[in-house]
UniProtKB/TrEMBL annotation:
Transmembrane feature ranges: 12-31, 51-71, 78-100, 120-141
Keyword line: Membrane, Transmembrane, Transmembrane helix
Organism of provenance: human gut metagenome
Name of the featured protein: ABC transporter, permease protein
Pfam families the UniProt entry points to: ABC2_membrane_4
The UniProt record lists the keyword Transferase: no
Length: 149
């Protein structure tokens, strides 16, 4: 069943997204422990673990529409790659503007996780933006079974 296969791909992408960010945290922690062990505190380590974990979850939500498009397009991998590159490249410019930083999905992840300094309003807008990404993904995936019949 195509829907079950796509759901499995989405779950796997979520798990890998979180695991990659936790691996990045582990590497960063080990380097800091070797270079500056005396500067590390439990609070600092836990705060950064939270940031990396939320980044992993948030990045998955932000890119879920791209994953859904790939599942929907069938063999549109190159187009999805181009779209993903443009999406991530645009994030560089979005992060330079305070207004765009608040609404662009990839940068809202950093507002939510605490990587960027953000007020509660910016965090709430970020949560809404990521939920819109999830809803958009679900709407894209909704027609999968109908296309195969």
């Amino acid at each position: 069943d195509e829907v079950k296969l796509t759901l499995a791909k989405m779950i796997l992408a979520f798990v890998f997204s979180v695991l990659i960010y936790l691996l990045l945290f582990a590497i960063t922690f080990l380097v800091e422990a070797v270079l500056h062990l005396e500067a590390l505190s439990v609070g600092l380590v836990l705060e950064n673990l939270k940031i990396y974990f939320l980044d992993g979850v948030g990045v998955f939500f932000a890119i879920s529409p791209i994953i859904a498009l790939v599942a929907r397009m069938k063999k549109g991998y190159w187009l999805a790659l181009v779209f993903a590159e443009i999406y991530s490249f645009a994030g560089l410019f979005a992060s330079m503007s305070q207004q765009l930083k608040t609404v662009y999905p990839m940068t809202t992840v950093f507002n939510i996780s605490g990587y960027y300094n953000a007020n509660m309003f910016q965090v709430l807008i970020g949560v809404v933006i990521l939920m819109v990404c999830v809803i958009l993904s679900l709407l894209i995936l909704k027609g999968l079974n109908r296309k195969t019949k």
